[in-house]
Amino acid sequence: MAGLPSATFGSDTMTDQPAIRRGLEELADGYDAFILDLWGVLHDGLRAYPEAVEALYALKARGKQLLLLSNAPRRTEDLARQMANLGLPEDSYHHLMSSGQDAYVHLRDRPCTWYRELGRRMLHIGPPHDANMREGLDVSVVSDVQFAEFVLNTGPALHATEIGALEPVLRQAADRELPMICANPDIRVMRGDSVELCAGALAKRYQELGGEVRYHGKPYQGIYDSCFQLLGDPDPKRTLAVGDTLHTDIEGANRVGIDSAFVPGGINAGDLGIRMGELPETDRLTALFAREGQSPTHVLPAFRW
Asked: Which GO terms describe its molecular function (predicted)?
């Protein structure tokens, strides 16, 4: 697979073709800082990809700054423990940021008028393992939407593949015009070979019902501001984002003006008819980029050296 033809997205013609790379060895010299997605790039939700761990250490050995950026609705301390259990030790990277951490800090510090006007009675929609998103906050957690002033959305129950069970709650909250904080903009995520819904799917439905949503995480500017601060304000031209999701990882990189590398064997593997480490047919990739309206700088078969 030598390269991709140019494609048209909306009214703009994409003249730069994403470059097909065999591995990070072909890219490392061109970048100083790397912003790396987790699910579908470094692990599959059950275990780390061995080649990915090797690549992290190879980049560190060459003096690259590595920041792992996840749309997980969890605080970073909890996320670090989870990743270590999956086989991604803390010494394999430098920094860690999550959409959950960003949402938590905003709820804790109330840095803007929107947050200061939320009120203190919070309805939390999310699985039990997201409970630490409530710890240390000056809020009262309510279980009845009728008593809530706002909604924290960290996603449906574990292994959920549809949102029907939550539809009544979402309708009631929308009818009461409760603002929603979405701590994970992802629509779906891989867990092993299966696909599960995320908080972004609930938020999308909430907006369809007329509800107001404040998003934290990729592809929104705020999370990248935090990342660049952690990385010591690197040159954007020498910063690379790597991800497997076009509407979060790649769109986020495009929004903030940094290069990106797309891993097609992650969340899109089933649609593209491949497994991790493989590259799809050129026309399938081109069609995917056209459908999503986003194009990366590079394409990698996997996060490997």
From this structure: phosphatase activity
